[in-house]
């Protein structure tokens, strides 16, 4: 409970900082007045409520979701290097979203329909297909090799990135070009109030379902044979959770683009605090992921202000070295 209380306080502090800081700095006391409804209408009020607050909420939602997904994938495949980005799931979701953007323009679908239905559905389909493909490649030869999983994920991710690039260079419209670039870099700049309901609801329901599956996830950590002996249908359970993870990834990527390495770094930090039992781990991971991405997005907005750097660039700059460090520890035989 102490860890959760500290993380909630950290998220509140990161939220206040995210609302107060940026190209226009607003005093924290004035931000509090705006949030509590005691401030008079002003440009600052518009900036806080209509621009920054939706962005902070989307950042917290995406960060929490990606961290939870990374934790679950690491348990499912028993590999601490697993992550939605490294396994190609985020890339698959991005390809689906990009196809929806381009085809939506070709067939004249309305913007509201595209945002509300087409893009999330296409992202989910792309994420699920890529995850199934990576898993099938890793099971080649009749067995499941966790080391081969990462290689398959990287290979599939490269193929999907190339496919996205192909769509990018063949897009007829300059508007499509800008939107596709957004999906490839990952960012929160398009956040609006009318687009928060689906990702927030999906995160809440998905995380609650995964917490209810904490015991089977713990059993998988002991190995598939041990889990089967204890009464778990590992293959069926893994397939169901893969679908749920793909749904979460698809919805989140549909609104943020492909933001990498959050699901790799945060679970390892959380395990150092509360251990590997998923009932305690998943809530901590969700809060840590929210804090991390809100803070990363704040850095992206302020480090080169007034220019807005895509937050996916910063997470890659921090996650890449972390991945190499983690890989070196595994090669040296140190438990990750």
* H/E topology pattern: HHHHHHHHHHHHHH
DSSP, total strands: 0
Radius of gyration: 20 Å
Task: Indicate the percent of residues in helices.
Answer: over 70%
Secondary-structure-derived class? mainly alpha
Q: How many distinct helices?
A: 14
Show unreliable segments: 106-114
- Averaged pLDDT: 83
Biggest β-sheet, characterized?
Answer: none
Shape: globular
Beta-strand residue percentage: under 5%
What's the N-to-C terminus distance? Answer: 25 Å
Keywords:
336 residues; mainly alpha; 14 helices; 0% strand
Summarize the structure.
The protein is built from 14 helices and no strands. It is mostly helical.
Structure description:
This protein has 336 residues and is mostly helical. The chain has 14 helices and no strands. It has helices spanning 2-20, 28-35, 43-77, 89-106, 111-138, 146-170, 174-185, 197-212, 214-221, 224-229, 234-256, 262-274, 278-302, 311-331. Helix 4 (89-106) runs antiparallel to helix 5 (111-138). The two termini are 25 Å apart.
List the helices and strands and how they pair.
Elements: H1 2-20, H2 28-35, H3 43-77, H4 89-106, H5 111-138, H6 146-170, H7 174-185, H8 197-212, H9 214-221, H10 224-229, H11 234-256, H12 262-274, H13 278-302, H14 311-331
Helix pairs in contact: 1-3, 1-13, 3-8, 3-9, 3-11, 3-12, 3-13, 4-5, 4-6, 4-7, 4-11, 5-6, 5-11, 6-7, 8-11, 8-13, 12-13
